[in-house]
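Progress note, sequence design subtask.
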């Protein structure tokens, strides 16, 4: 499709939720046209909205995201921003950041990840990024962590006056990837390298055996160690990319 079509009606009672497939759209960005989530198949995506271009908090967030972009790429993750601004406005803003802005010692910084142009607000409303009670039609600071299958795995909302903690977003991403790779859960305040929680027992016999382990933990709360090296070696999963290659070869035959 050539553009994201929006008929002016919004089912504002429904917003995308964890476990749902990320809504599809096509749109212009500062890096060219994208079909989402198709163009990102096989990768995790941090899809986030900001209230507007040329705003101070958003500028600091974008520079922080950019400073960590290679860290996210190491985790098989791409960044994708959005606001209800035009592509021309996005481009002018990132040129201003590169030319004029100094923050945390960063200067002459080029924002390389794409920013979606959504001046009609269609995509933002589809994703529930516009909260009418917040006072206007700008997007709030929404964050969607989307997995390689295009499934929404985590959602975060921040008010306009509060800048996001990008390190916490990265921590949540790694926790999700670790949970998938090792079939575990992560406890409160977890950071990579700390013990993780193993699944609860499915049978009374398994529960009883845990009480006899003598490790000082309850039958329903058991831990095991996974090193940061083990996590990094496993969480970059190329399975879906390989599946796509196989499908492409099959079609050519």
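Output:
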């Amino acid at each position: 499709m050539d553009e994201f079509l929006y008929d002016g009606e919004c089912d504002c009672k429904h917003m995308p939720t964890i476990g749902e497939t990320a809504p599809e759209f096509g749109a212009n960005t500062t890096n060219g046209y994208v079909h989402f989530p198709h163009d990102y198949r096989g990768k995790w995506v941090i899809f986030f909205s900001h209230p507007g271009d040329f705003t101070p908090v958003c500028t600091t967030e974008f520079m922080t995201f950019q400073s960590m972009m290679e860290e996210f790429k190491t985790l098989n993750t791409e960044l994708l921003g959005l606001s209800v601004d035009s592509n021309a406005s996005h481009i002018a803003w990132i040129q201003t950041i590169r030319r004029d802005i100094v923050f945390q010692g960063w200067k002459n910084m080029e924002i390389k990840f794409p920013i979606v142009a959504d001046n009609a607000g269609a995509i933002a409303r589809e994703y529930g990024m516009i909260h009418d009670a917040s006072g206007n039609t700008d997007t709030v600071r929404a964050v969607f962590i989307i997995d390689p299958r295009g499934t929404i795995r985590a959602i975060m909302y921040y008010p306009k006056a509060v800048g996001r903690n990008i390190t916490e977003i990265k921590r949540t991403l790694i926790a999700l990837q670790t949970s998938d790779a090792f079939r575990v859960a992560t406890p409160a305040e977890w950071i990579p390298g700390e013990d993780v929680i193993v699944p609860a027992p499915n049978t009374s016999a398994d529960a009883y055996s845990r009480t006899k382990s003598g490790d000082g933990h309850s039958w329903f709360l058991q831990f095991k160690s996974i090193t940061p090296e083990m996590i990094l070696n496993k969480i970059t999963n190329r399975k879906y990319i390989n599946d796509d290659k196989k499908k492409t070869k099959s079609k050519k035959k």
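The radius of gyration is 21 Å. Work on this subtask will continue into the next period as scheduled.
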